[in-house]
Amino acid sequence: MFRLVVSVSLLLSCFNCFSLASLITCSGIVPMRYRNDKISITDFGGIGDGKTLNTKAFREAIYRIQHLRRRGGTLLYIPPGVYLTGSFNLTSHMTLYLARGAVIKATEDTRSWPLVAPLPSYGRGRERPGGRYMSFIHGDGLRDVVITGENGTIDGQGAVWWNMWRQRTLPFTRPNLIEFMNSRNIIISNVIFQNSPFWNIHPVYSSHIVIRYVTILAPPDSPNTDGIDPDSSTNVCIEDSYISTGDDLVAVKSGWDEYGIAYGRCSSGITIRRVTGSSPFAGIAVGSETSGGVENVLAEHINLYNVGVGIHVKTNMGRGGFIRNITFSDVYMENARKGIKIAGDVGDHPDDKFNPNALPVVKGVTIKNVWGVKVQQSGTIQGLKNSPFTGICLSDINLHGVTGPTSPPFKCSDVSGTAYQVNPWPCSELTSSQRTGSCSNYL
Questions:
Q1: pLDDT of the residue at 16
Q2: Is 51 helix (H, G, I), strand (E, B) or coil?
């Protein structure tokens, strides 16, 4: 409860700091649907006592929505209570609505989790060879789905999965909390997500996704509990949310090495705005799985506290693909191990079949209007010898150190671009610019 109160207060302070920015939103890319037809999970025998297993009730309710096909779709209401359940699939033209005090809680019986095929752009499970466990709440090929409510909770009870990972007893890759595949027109808002077994919200091969007014919580030592990972997806809007997890708060991805190259589906048109949070890893990241390409990403008005790396663009040899036209703007970070990192040596490989000569192309990364306090190291920009990073522009950046007025200077290699009003000065590889707005020359 304390963490949630803190998160809400930080989020409100973020809104106050950027009151003008709060008028700007990308959420209109998906219209909110009103459903005339409404049913309750209790109509199907749902019992919110925290003990009764409600998997059958959820599956029967969704079967009813799918097959009766009411005009305008159907709202499935989850009243106050704790509804224990196994994983289940959503269907098109539905709203999953959690009332205040409603909790949908995942069973801790890992044996009941169905296995699904690996994503074709990954070629295998992200953690283990072979298939992967189905996400707690899953959707494939859906249209017009809303998950919303009065800040009810979806709880993945991930501790049992985290322990399996730590003890190296995982037979397959852990399940995400929410995953939409091959889907379109999805809204996720006004819900608390906590204790995901693996990544929290994972839209993959999807488009027109809005994620707004969500809170995502997991302990800082929970492994790989990324907050929101848009993956080979387009037109994604992430706004007005608080995330505190054990891994990257938001990470844009597009496939893994030779499998992602072959699948060839990029992530594009991603907006991340007014996100506040903390993580021992990255605040806002691109990568490291970017083999299908990532382009046209805007992250602005971001507040980060107690983070490993504030802004992280990461790829590796064997990834192929591209990272281009990426903008980070108006970022505040406090107590960060490293302020900015752009690197070509991050992340592992799915197997030994990757092509080391498949080099990523990184071009047009703009980072501007950044203020950091208690930043241990300003940053590193390390391109690849045979594929230097180009068009890197840093502008109006002040990163203050832990003990002195500024943190240690940047370290750079195999990179070209420009810098304007950066303190401490980044590196000789980035040429000095005296012109305001010079970053636009490098896009």
A1: 45
A2: strand
DSSP 8-class letter at 159: H
pLDDT at 17 over 90: no
148, 188 in Cβ contact below 8 A? yes
Q: Reply yes or no on whether the pLDDT at 437 is more than 70.
A: no
- Secondary structure (DSSP) of 345-406: B----SSTTS-TT---EEEEEEEEEEEEEEEEEEEEEE-BTTB-EEEEEEEEEEE--SSSSS
Sign of the dihedral through C-alpha 116, 112, 108, 86:
positive
Q: In the prediction, which pLDDT does 124 show? A: 98
| Catalytic site includes residue 247 | yes
Q: Which of 155, 229, 240, 247 is catalytic?
A: 247
**CA-based max dimension of the chain:** 68
Q: Half-sphere exposure of residue 91, counting CA atoms within 13 Å on the CB side?
A: 17
Q: Which pLDDT value is given to residue 147?
A: 98
> Binning pLDDT at 50, 70 and 90, where does residue 438 land?
low
- Look at residue 296 and tell me whether its pLDDT is greater than 90: yes
Q: Give the single-character DSSP code of 323.
A: E
**pLDDT average, residue stretch 130-143:** 98
**12 CB neighbour count, 10 Å cutoff:** 12
pLDDT digits (tens, 9 = 90+) for 241-253: 999 999 999 999 9
DSSP category for residue 355: -
Judged by DSSP in three states, 66 sits in helix
Burial-class residue 70 by CB neighbours within 10 Å (0-12, 13-18, 19+). Answer: middle
pLDDT exceeds cutoff 90 at 66: yes
Asked if 342 contacts 284 with a C-beta cutoff of 8 angstroms, the reply is no
Q: Give the per-residue pLDDT at 426.
A: 82
Residue 254, pLDDT > 80, answer: yes
**CB crowding 242-278: b at 16 or more within 10 Å, else e:** bbbbbbbbbbbbbbbbbbbbebebbbbbbbbbbbbbb
3-state secondary structure of 16: helix
User: Distance between CA 385 and CA 181 in Å, rounded?
Assistant: 36
Give CA–CA dist 318/264, Å, rounded.
14
Q: What is the pTM of this model?
A: 0.94
Instruction: Note every long-range contact of 160-165, with CB atoms under 8 Å and residues 24 or more positions apart, other chains counting.
Output: 160/108, 160/110, 160/197, 161/110, 161/197, 161/198, 162/197, 162/222, 162/223, 164/110, 165/127, 165/223, 165/224
**N-term to C-term CA, the chain:** 44
DSSP 10-73: HHHHHHHHTTTGGG---GGGSPPPPPSEEEEGGGGT---EEEEE-HHHHHHHHHHHHHH--TT-
